[in-house]
Design a protein that fits this description.
With 773 residues, the chain is an alpha/beta fold. It has 26 helices and 13 strands. The protein is globular, with a radius of gyration of 31 Å. The relative contact order is 0.14.
Length: 773
Amino acid sequence: MATSWWPWAVWSASCLLVAVTVFADMRRKRPGGQAYPAADPAELDEAASQLALSVGSQWRGELERQRIHDPGPIPVRWQPAHELMDHLDNICRASSWANPGPLALDGSLERIVDVYLEIPSGRLVVLGRPGAGKTILALRLLVDLIEIRASNHPVPVLFSLGSWNPRTTPLPDWLISELVRERPALGAVGRSGSSLAAALLVTGRILPVLDGFDEIAGGLHGAALGRINATALPLLLTSRHDDYAAAVRASRVLSASAVIQLDDLTPSDLGRYLPLTTTRTAVARQYPSGSSVIVWEPVIACLKEQPAGPAQHLRRVLSTPLMVALARAIYSDTAARDPAELLDPGQFATIDDLEDHLLRAFIPAVYESPPCDQWPDRRQRWNAARAQRWLGYLAWHLDRLDTRNLALWQLGDTGSRLPAALLASSAEFVLFWLAGIPNAAIGGGAIFALALALAGGLSFGLGERQEPSRAEVRFRGTATPFARRFVTGSAVGLLYVLACGGRLNSALIGGFVAGLAFGSYVWLQVPATISVVPTPLTVLRQDRVATLTFGLGAGLACGTCMALIAWRSGPPAPEAAGGQAAIIASTLMGLAAGSVIGGLGYGRAGALIYGLTMGALTLGAHWAPGGIVGLAMSPPVTVLFGVLYGLAVAVIIVAPRAWGTYTLTRIWLALRGDLPWRLMAFLEHACDRSILRQSGGVYQFRHARLQDHLAHNYQVHRPPTAARPSISPDHPERRDDSRRTTAPSSGAAGTGQSGYRTAHGRHRHRPRRADRH
């Protein structure tokens, strides 16, 4: 009896050691891919140059996708907003000017860099109506500053303020966390203990472009101004006029800041832009000769000549770049419609009617007649009606999450987790059941498989949702941690096989495989390259590498050890399954093994559920035929058993991770018809059609108004459910004042990449308005 219980006890202790080691490693903050020695100016300049390359490439490509320069930018102009500006002496306090004169803040889009560089404090606030072009102005400044940047100049980086809680987090701390979350290589820690991102910020090598001040939670705008005023950072801030003005009245102006207000577009601006977007002609009936003119020219003539009536409404609607861009897509890029219909009072009696029409017709226009043949493959051409439904679901999903950022790994957060849990648990059941067919004792048969599948489904529903692992495979500098992990994993694998009655040679093989699998995790390192442009596709790919490496490694170790245990020459010794000490020890082993496997996949909930399940199964196996060590298998059957068992363990670990959850949810939503099977290709196509845009690791709708419109239409036409109803675009919580014929109001810009945990997750507040153009 003395020889029957000690292996179980030793292996149980080993499992607990592995659990502590793994969880400590998973919870440890791994700030970056490589450590930099110190805040050396030359190294910081090189890091800033790499960051500038990445940021410039990212947003230059986005501007090209939005066709900002085709045929040219929409004319955007502005005027200084003196009533919201700080004193001129404060703005010029960093300058050597003895008697500062008035700043030349008037300008147009092509002069934004000159205007900004004339501000001594480097602080500029951009205000405007919804769709007035604040985000485009900010991006144009960002790209142009990078193009003329010298090695010692700061790098402009876009941040979306919607995820910032100024009551709990100072602005510099939040900026550093966003930089590291977006580009993990900036988390590398130097000898001083600060990260590379912190070193770049405090040495003035980062110029924050703070997008969407009004997207901060209600009631926090005054606190946000206070936090910003607590720093002397040069910055650019965009906001809706009303929200910023209210914050100023409640606290004070943004210190040392100049403020500009974007102007409305005029009929003359439209006349210089819209006719250049098409070569289509129409007969000008108002001319005696009946000559052909560009289709937009009669419309623009009416806007200039008719002060009231339908022309007044259309003039108001086309006063923002957003609506002009929608009108261009509908009437310039297609041959089926005439813009003259916009002046028909029978169809469009109000400003609301006109705006709703442009929003409603935009999606069919870009899918039925794409502006350019970038997708020659017929499989890439999407049906307009289906695309409308898919985009509507995505917009409704964002509405439910109260966010503007489409993080693909959160697609399952808006509905029940049951479908994805059923898919994951079904896969576990099939694999465990197939593995148990040749050996009912080890595999546990259908009961064993069903119990673990139920544990998987329950863990999936209650377990932690993991954020994407930004990892790449790198071997350099991993010899020591790999050796440490290899020894630990080998010891556990060897003791496990011996404790379950395996031979010494089998135990040595199992220990080697377990050590290799356990040690391989150290090869997953945080990306060390700053210049790589983050995209949703790269985020998912990096997480897929980490997920499959970790999941398949654990599956390989477990499957190999179980196969070696099963490969025996005869039935187990009678004392192996008997004895109170052996029963207690083996039950503890089951608890430890289940806790390790479940914890690696689902966190604390998974550790508890799988630990209890495996402990109960191990305890019950003492009274099963053949005991807990099972019956002998032939070599081919043993290999098949090990493969199936290992795959089942891999499913447990892969399913709850970001890539696993995304895959399961995408399959379910495609089966329901809410999303296409080729989702990534569809999203990339939508970006090329300027419906969506990429902002780091997430997608965003081009404008919040478009997102709200699609979400409302989807909610109206979807089957009724008990879920919380979507908020209509005309609800007071969502309404844009610009949809009214009075009170010109302002909008917010919200395009910056937010952190994956806060901005990409479930927001604690609704972004009430977001100007996305």
